[in-house]
Design brief:
Blueprint lengths: L1 H6 L3 H55 L8 H31 L1
Length: about 100
Amino acid sequence: MLAVLLDMPDFDEMWGDVQEEIQEKDAEDAVVNLAQELKQLSADQYKQQEVLWLKQSQRLTDIVKNNEGVWISTKLFYAVGLLSLLSIITIVLEIAFYVYFHWIQ
């Protein structure tokens, strides 16, 4: 009988194992709950963003339909574009002449 009592596990060891299992279960539950909350938060933010994008899109569509806002004239657009292109060509030619006359000869 004494041998049976000596072979029994210690109560503190058994209770410690049970406590560890409970803590692990609580931690797993907390992670699952947190994941569910984050998923719901993400879905809510997605819905809010979608509503905002739809409002912005509708607003921009109304501006274009009503011909509102600041628009640049076609003539001014082509004039500025042509001057920009000429400026770029001039700078490229200056660099080419500099390289040719100072480094090549």
